[in-house]
């Protein structure tokens, strides 16, 4: 029943995707075209220079590029091979898979049945695979019931509080909170989801570094808690450092894995805005939380609203109204302090305004003050009296507090 | 050269409009239809019951109503006459005009050459006249260069500061600030315009009470300063108290007298929102200032943005972008802290990310870390060096701070 010692320890497809994950940076266009045109195994063979691209394969590559809107000159395989060569020389995908397994991690590929279908919305730029930690059975979590809650690392205490409140309220209503595991807003979003979440998994952290790293160091304990009940995911190969480029590419996965994205705080330029634009590009709704116009930490949120990328949201109800399919669960009308004048006709309001608070007014005087007929005043006084808003005696009428 | 003692002291048209201003509440539909159908003099005669409506006049009234979208049943002249009768008995328009004059006030009518043309946008609900204080020559001020800055009476210190900043910046750029003379945001808007305004008049206050009153009492000094260099206006007859109904109707005049309206702070339900809806109904742009989601004082602003009535605005540039005709003066692109990576290609950014800060990296190592070819790394290092971002020695390369 055991495989023969000479049998490959990993299936070729998974091995090829793990190799590509190591070899190329996320969303490398030429690599993604090779993958789409030739499939993982042949793509890796060509990308590593193990063999030249075949005479029949090249037209497929060019056609794939054309279908994706790229001309033949943008498929510069020669330059790409030069770019990949230094890493190709050291490539050992089996070793990567084994070191990941030793670290308690797994590697999922689009061909797996539990691969999140929502990632297909990324098209050519779907991750070549996802390295993960946490219960693998969570990978198929319902992304239609998950919300990305993202924002600046250097958030304000206001932003942190809003992130805690929003993520907590969403998580307690059974929504999975997706974020990036960073300082600031991300950290608050994960923490609140861990504390109050009722969904399985309560929270998912999509990282920019290798799955064997817990970055930033200050969040190690938090990320271990995410791993314990939720998921840590990354497209970067084990050992990879989190570069600025990888952070920005990572954001597309956060956007794709959720029904919508909420930006809690973002500076005028920020990674959170980048996530918002990814979500918008994927036709996922985007919400942005307003704040003080004096706070640089909210400038990016205000920008997103002004540019029409995001809808202004102030609480979890408004977020759900945004991310749920139309009519699924309309946000309740906000309770507002009731006014005594609610439900009064315009004329009765005028009459109420005309009633004195202390002295008493006779109806004929009220007619002149309110600009109403005697009949309207008498009928109106009766209606106001019924509502407990006016009181009359032989001396006249006044407002009742 | 002097008029004969028996000659009327006021022209009949002005006298009739002053009478209507006393007789009917603002925007009283039947009265406005009478005025539009018969003109001021005949309208007042009919409205006071001095004579019945003529056999030829009634069809004109019904046609006017139909043109304004009202059926014949909505023109209930009998009920209206009963409503106006108590005030008609005491009507003395000449005395009103004289008491206003004694208080240093004047009465302007739509037939005057300096009547603000923008008020005609109110259609049927144009004020029957405006009582004013301040230099009458200011009445023809350019409403296309004026902005309404409005908001809650019970504003926060944040809202007050924003109102001072916004109104001050707009006024110093030659815009007239229109507001309602109330506590809170209105007060701050007027005060800032008085302090920094370069337009003539710097500020205009549209009140809900009679022109002989300065309401609220706490703003008396401020309103006297508005009178001294700007304008106080009201459609209410002398002696009128500011009722809730009159406040709400007054807001349509604020909206009509400005190129656009900015709501600085507003509760979920508030008069400032009412002004915003008037402006929106007049196709005037509306801006709303965001604030903390925890502040009830900003809830109405957020609501206006969410409902699409208002555009989110955070400073005077954005207000001007909103209220100025397209292309008149685009708001400058906001200065943002420059990033060292600005203008770098994606690949050079990746390379910059890969450069260590302290130890030095050799190009072959950078190729593997960055996923770039030797040629790309060497050319990229040269470009980064030229920008002062990288420094190389025989031992290798590192990032330069």
Task: Please outline the helices and strands.
Two copies of one chain form a homodimer.
Chain A: H1 12-23, H2 29-47, H3 57-67, H4 77-88, H5 93-102, E1 106-108, E2 130-134, E3 146-150, H6 157-172, E4 176-179, H7 185-196, E5 203-206, H8 220-229, E6 231-234, H9 244-256, E7 260-263, H10 271-281, E8 286-288, H11 296-306, E9 311-312, H12 316-323, H13 346-354, H14 363-370, H15 374-386, E10 390-393, E11 396-399
Parallel strand pairs in A: 3-4, 3-7, 4-5, 5-6, 7-8, 8-9
Antiparallel strand pairs in A: 1-2, 2-6, 10-11
What are the defining features of this structure?
two-stranded antiparallel sheet, homodimer, 9-stranded mixed β-sheet, alpha/beta, Arc Repressor Mutant, subunit A
From the helix content, strand content and strand pairing of chain A, which structural class follows?
A: alpha/beta
Number of domains of chain A: 3
Biggest chain contact: A-B, 59 and 59 residues
CATH topology of the largest domain in chain A: Rossmann fold
Give unreliable regions of chain A as ranges.
1-8, 330-337
Overall, the morphology of chain A is elongated
Largest sheet of chain A: 9 strands, mixed
Give the second-level CATH assignment, the architecture of the largest domain in chain A.
3-Layer(aba) Sandwich
What is the residue-averaged pLDDT of chain A?
91
- Strand arrangement, major sheet of chain A: 1-2-6-5-4-3-7-8-9
Question: Into which percentage range does the β-strand content of chain A fall?
Answer: 5-15%
CA radius of gyration of chain A is 30 Å
Instruction: Please write the string of helix (H) and strand (E) elements of chain A.
Output: HHHHHEEEHEHEHEHEHEHEHHHHEE
Distance between the termini of chain A: 87 Å
What does the oligomeric state look like here?
Answer: homodimer
User: What is the tally of helical segments of chain A?
Assistant: 15
CATH class type of the largest domain in chain A: Alpha Beta
């Amino acid at each position: 029943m055991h495989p023969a010692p000479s049998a490959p320890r990993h299936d070729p497809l998974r091995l090829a995707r793990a190799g590509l994950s190591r070899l190329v940076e996320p969303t490398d266009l030429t690599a993604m075209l090779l993958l789409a045109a030739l499939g993982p195994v042949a793509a890796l063979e060509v990308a590593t220079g193990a063999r030249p691209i075949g005479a029949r394969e090249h037209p497929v590559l060019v056609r794939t590029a054309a279908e994706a809107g790229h001309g033949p000159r943008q498929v510069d395989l020669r330059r790409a091979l030069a770019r990949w060569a230094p890493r190709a020389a050291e490539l050992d995908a089996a070793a990567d898979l084994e070191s990941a397994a030793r670290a308690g991690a797994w590697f999922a590929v689009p061909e797996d049945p539990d691969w999140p279908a929502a990632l297909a919305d990324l098209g050519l730029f779907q991750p070549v695979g996802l390295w993960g930690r946490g219960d693998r059975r969570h990978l198929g979590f319902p992304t239609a019931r998950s919300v990305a809650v993202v924002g600046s690392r250097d958030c304000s205490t206001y932003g942190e509080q809003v992130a805690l409140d929003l993520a907590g309220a969403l998580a307690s209503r059974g929504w999975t909170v997706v974020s990036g595991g960073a300082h600031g807003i991300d950290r608050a979003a994960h923490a609140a989801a861990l504390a109050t979440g009722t969904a399985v998994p309560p929270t998912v952290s999509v990282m920019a570094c290798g799955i064997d790293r817990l970055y930033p160091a200050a969040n190690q304990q938090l990320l271990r808690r995410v791993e314990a009940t939720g998921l840590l995911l990354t497209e970067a190969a084990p050992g990879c450092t989190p570069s600025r480029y990888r952070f920005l590419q990572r954001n597309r996965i956060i956007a794709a894995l959720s029904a919508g994205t909420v930006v809690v705080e973002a500076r005028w330029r920020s990674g959170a805005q980048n996530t918002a634009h990814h979500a918008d590009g994927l036709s996922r709704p985007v919400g942005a939380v307003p704040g003080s116009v004096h706070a640089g930490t909210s400038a990016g949120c205000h920008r997103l609203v002004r540019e029409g990328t995001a809808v202004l949201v102030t609480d979890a109800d408004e977020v759900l109204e945004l991310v749920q399919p139309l009519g699924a669960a309309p946000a309740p009308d906000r309770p507002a302090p009731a006014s005594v004048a609610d439900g009064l006709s315009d004329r009765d309001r005028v009459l109420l305004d005309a009633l004195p608070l202390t002295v008493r007014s006779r109806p004929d005087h009220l007619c002149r003050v309110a600009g109403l007929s005697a009949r309207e005043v008498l009928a109106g006084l009766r209606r106001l009296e019924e509502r407990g808003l006016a009181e009359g005696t032989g001396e006249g009428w006044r407002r009742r507090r």
